[in-house]
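Recall that a protein's primary structure is simply its ordered list of amino acids. Everything else, from secondary elements to tertiary packing, is in principle encoded there. The following example makes that idea concrete.
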Amino acid sequence: MSVNRTRPAGRHDRRRPETVPSQRRTPQRVLRPHHWFAERLLAVLSGQRPVHWMLGHTIGEAYDQLAELAPATPLRARGARPVVRQCHGAQPAPGVVEACASIAAGEQVRAMAFRLEQGPDLRWRCAAVELGIPTPPAKSNPSAAPGPPGD
């Protein structure tokens, strides 16, 4: 009688042990600061996260800009969830990144620009945010309109 050494004694089924997953971690793509901030700004400006989520990641007037923009959720889209399509950054000076991102939601594409500054603690913080959303034209005052020539 031959002894089957591939299964424990008393086990009679034909299943084999599963393969052990590799212990090596696959290297993940390292996000640059402007990519990371683009995702965070999108989350706030689309209503997925509250504006105070960016409190420790902003300096200067950037938080005030976000607090003013966020209630209107300017990057929210009906149906499709908005995503960062592309994000490009330029470094005009050491410790400064000026970036722009295109935000897509279905067929709709919008633009977002922001400035990052690196502090003495080497952490990046958002210093300014602008959206490529057209602003409504200023209402004209009919009484201030010039009259016909020759009055």
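The beta strands are 83-93, 96-105, 108-118, 124-131. The chain has a mean pLDDT of 83.
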